[in-house]
Specification:
It is found in: Cell membrane. By secondary structure, the protein is mostly helical. The chain is 70% helix and 0% strand. The protein has one domain: MetI-like fold (Orthogonal Bundle), CATH 1.10.3720.10. It has 13 helices and no strands. It starts with a helix and ends in a 6-residue tail after the last helix.
Length: 304
Amino acid sequence: MSALARLRDSDLWFSFRTSPVAIAAALVTAILVFGAVFAPWVAPHQPFELASLDLNDSLLPPAWSAEGRIAYPLGTDDQGRDVLSTILYGSRISLAVGVASVLLALVLGVSLGLLSGYVGGRLDAFIMRVADVQLSFPAILIALLIDGAARAMLPRDAHSDTLSLMVLVGSIGLANWVQYARTVRGSTMVEKNREYVQAARVIGVSPLRIMATHVLPNALGPVLVIGTINVATAIITEATLSFLGVGVPPTSPSLGTMINTGNNFLYSGEWWLVVFPGLALVLLCMSVNLLGDWLRDALNPKLR
């Protein structure tokens, strides 16, 4: 039986196709991700090509308004950039930062959780105390501190867009590893006392191989659920940092940077500069969260 056939016959697929909320969330997520990934081909304009910008087209309202133009469906910003195209390009950066930071937090947290739960003793106590200390601070504050410290240590001539994005990914990832570590630690402490793990020890399998091939696969279910939900959390964290002016550089604006810029024009009547990027951010995070909630319920054997 092929992998596709096994998927069609699985409980996971049955749970998905019988859940209208999951289907709607997956559809919205797919549309937003498709628009972000293929922005250079889908976007009606190239908002970051200076040669294509015209200041005479700045601050145009949406197309359905009296002064709007069909060429700019959601209006333009103060530099004459098409808001729809800018949202598509900004979503690419928000998604990239969110997914990359979650992968970093997942790898770090799962590794530390495996070591803590399997080895135990002083190493377990040290890792968990560090986790307890970090949990006493809000994640956004930790990300803000790490981001600020990293930028202060780097030389001024090294503040490129790529390096700034890497610092942002690292700060968000380092602020969110604790959930994975604590979850994996609990699963590891249960699994390491099972008969198959003890049998692997008896035949001389190394502890590293036991953790990687025996314990880890049985602890990945909750990790996948946390990772799915944390993608939305990471995107919101990135948007918050960018809104505060310490996230994505202005030359590569994300949804948070767009909201920050549009906030300066909100009271002068240019509401579309805030509403449409904010709506895209809400739809993206809400759809990912709904998928995470469905996945949590689908993988919970007590709810079957």
